[in-house]
Amino acid sequence: MEITQSTRMQQFITFMQRANQIAASTDLEPLLDQMLGLLMQVVQAPAGVVYLYEPEGDEQVLTVIRGDTTIRHLLGKHFAADRCLAGYVVRAGKPVFISDVTREPLWNQSIGALSGMGFRTAYCLPLLLQDQPLGAVEIFDLPLTVVDDPDDMTLVQLLCERLTIEIEKTRMLINARRRERRLQALVDIVSHITTTLDRDQLLERIMHHASQLLNVEATSIWLRDERTGDLVLQMATGKESRQLRGEEVRVPAGRGIIGYVTSKGERVLVNDVRNDSRFYRKIDQQSGFVTRSILCLPLRAPTIQLGSGAGVLPAKIIGGAQALNKRDGQSFSAEDVSLFETLASQAATVLQLAWLYERNSRLFLGIIKAVTGAIDLKDPYTRGHSQRVADFAVAIAREMGLSQEMLYHVRIGAILHDVGKIGVGDAILKKPEHLTNEEMGMMKLHPTYGVRLLHDADLEDLLREESSAMAQHHERLDGSGYPLGLKGDEISLIGRIVAVADAFDAMTSSRPYRPAMSLEQTFSILCSAGGTEYDAQCVEALVRAHAQGMIKTQAEREG
Amino acid sequence: MEITQSTRMQQFITFMQRANQIAASTDLEPLLDQMLGLLMQVVQAPAGVVYLYEPEGDEQVLTVIRGDTTIRHLLGKHFAADRCLAGYVVRAGKPVFISDVTREPLWNQSIGALSGMGFRTAYCLPLLLQDQPLGAVEIFDLPLTVVDDPDDMTLVQLLCERLTIEIEKTRMLINARRRERRLQALVDIVSHITTTLDRDQLLERIMHHASQLLNVEATSIWLRDERTGDLVLQMATGKESRQLRGEEVRVPAGRGIIGYVTSKGERVLVNDVRNDSRFYRKIDQQSGFVTRSILCLPLRAPTIQLGSGAGVLPAKIIGGAQALNKRDGQSFSAEDVSLFETLASQAATVLQLAWLYERNSRLFLGIIKAVTGAIDLKDPYTRGHSQRVADFAVAIAREMGLSQEMLYHVRIGAILHDVGKIGVGDAILKKPEHLTNEEMGMMKLHPTYGVRLLHDADLEDLLREESSAMAQHHERLDGSGYPLGLKGDEISLIGRIVAVADAFDAMTSSRPYRPAMSLEQTFSILCSAGGTEYDAQCVEALVRAHAQGMIKTQAEREG
Fold first, then answer.
1. What ipTM was estimated for this complex?
2. Interface contact B362-A151, CB threshold 8 A
3. What residue ranges define each of the domains in chain A, with the CATH number in brackets?
């Protein structure tokens, strides 16, 4: 059939309009598929494929197949660029027409050998953007005459140029959006890990987020043992990680990739650990995990400004983080490295913050235990009293279902309840006999002294509950207590709890003027005074806590 | 000139090839400029412009001008879409040919009235992508015949379609990359603000980063006063912000936009505050700043897991953050809101962490000051001793140029230096006369008691320097001190510093058995013992610190 120039022109315009419609999409695969369809229409071919080039590995990936279903199983297959037709035309920089593919070695080495296609001719075009390979198009079983038609070949050429541009722009957009999505995930992760100072929870969050962000099979965090320099495994994720629980896993200083990374302060990326002599096989042997690829980074804590006149916590490498075995057979990319570095840096910062919090908590708790312990020691009969009262009070509070925060206040308040005794003379504290009325009057000042001590230290606002425990642990519901003779609701919950805990320890400890009471006797006294002197619910909670073995009297501990 | 069909075809192909070349770019303005050039070439026109449509404000923006230099000053100008030709063709959804622009009201209302162009004809084409307006092209002074040539019109139509697609894809890419860039900046900011627990430094970092990220003239942070509910300005940036320094700036609870935001927990975005009755003018009046637009967010601190058995710090709104006056006349975008929300959330988290650190520091420092103060009180003659020794020791250490961290250890160590006296009986501590040898032997145990107290509390590793101060503050360089009779280098720097500070306070305070020594006498004794008993550098530092008025003796304070 002879085609007139104006019909030609009309066809040409139609193809270009169709190309515009197709190019409006930013979905890469439908775009490739439809553009391939358009090319096949131009040259009246029944089948064709599109390859996309992957520079990493120098491979052509079979991305789109049209018109033939017998080779569907090859979709997604990677072909070495130097051993396939697509690679050949890209290197040649120009199209190639093959009149009999069965005689073409490059064809047979790649797609031909694997397919049951009955194609004979193939027209193969490179997709090049300013000499950069983006992929290739192969069109099969086209009429031989088409190749000799310069108009058709021009149109094919124009459409291939267009396809190249659309691939490049769509990939740029896909990449930018993927980076955007991953950065958004990273921002959320960085914010999320900052909201816990609980070390174990923090490690879990870091590991969990790292696995997801990097799409890896396993992750692990190692911290440096300050004394030996060894790396100690803190937490690991991945199916086999439970094999590593229970016993401590250590890598000696400088050994393995983790040792290298933390001592040199350099990251290590190994996409095949069989090629890396630093790899320390022992952990895999222990866990049964088979490490293929590793991205290992130092956990580099930055200088942290402390405020409150405490200067800085200096920058240092506190350990290392590993991501193992990128999923789906992929390698770690520069983008993975950058994301993991940011995550590791924030992880190191928050680990330091958690350590600081733990240190400060230990300092405060340690010093008040030490001081109140020293006060208790003044009277050999009250040795360990404050600590025991704290244990009892916390057990009561827990049994009453109070919140974790309230348990903490109860613990501190109970440890501190007698700190005011520091203002009572040794002569009274240590006196083995019963106190005179005047001496008892001095002794009864200790709750007031305690509160004044907090007040003078400007700590009343920070230790409001604790202050109440100190002030009220000798008050009684019926108003018979001291120093204020408060009644009923005037006494705070924490005051009632510590009162019961304090009385329980006093009764079950021996005194110079009387032996320790029996448990039966103690519970009987406390229960009968429940509702009059003591809060009945607190007494019941104490009885339950003791029955469950949660607390032990001095005699039970020492006996 | 008659053009043959095959020449036509050739031209057509050339234009399409050129369009492919132009479209390879992802730089929007050169791409628009070159595509406009191509369109002008098709219709043989001497000039043309491209408008881009901005949905926010419903405006057409004159983005590219070609071929005429007399209207260059209009570049970048915004035209209301309902009052210009570009807007008209977009709404009409089809091209318009105007044979005499001087008679066209829409032309005169917009570009015509402002330009000195001598154009008569204009061909105006909408750029629509699936009915969404992207902009418009106007081509001027084209030959009248061209409009009647269907091939040319088809080609123009094809190129406009192409242009529309390229604008859309390029904008998508530009937007994705801008979001990526801003997210990367946000990640860096979020990481950076987490590395300081110093409240003022933290506020400064938050404000600085917010200004940059959002491109605004001013920012401010307000925290809620727990007692009154008022919002108190913590820090502000912007030229006029220094007007707000010095005195406290408060907004009463619930007043103003900041009060609304923090009480309702909702963000407020006002692009023109004149239209918002909530706006609280008083602050502008105080500072001289003229607020136009506000983005105000609650500072919503999340629940923070504390670890160490302390439960959680509950989630709450701690205040609000404001960004004022987006620069370059822009409005706040949804993207701005999202970025500022993430920043504000992290800011609230780290402000809580800084508050926790400050609280824990205050707790520890407060309790050791209170306890050592109570011990000092046992002997009326040593009232305030530990605190004064701490002040002196820190002054010495500062004068010696020690680091902020060491100053902190010196302060804690000096406050604690006599804590071991808690283990020495009142009878000895309070005895007004000279002690017997046996009593002195008991007294000399206090450094050892102090160290044991830290040891029993398992705090030796956390308070290593402090422990050394407690152990060695009675050691002397020549070996004449106690408890170990250490010599020279065996005594730590902190031990030497606290020894001098302790001796200085003892000498300058009155005792039952002697009055306070004069300063001259004290310095003379200390200086002559410098190098034998005391570290000479420490003594010199003390003398310098006193000369500079950095420290005051008990007599100087009370006198």
1. 0.90
2. no
3. 5-175 (3.30.450.40), 196-350 (3.30.450.40), 379-558 (1.10.3210.10)
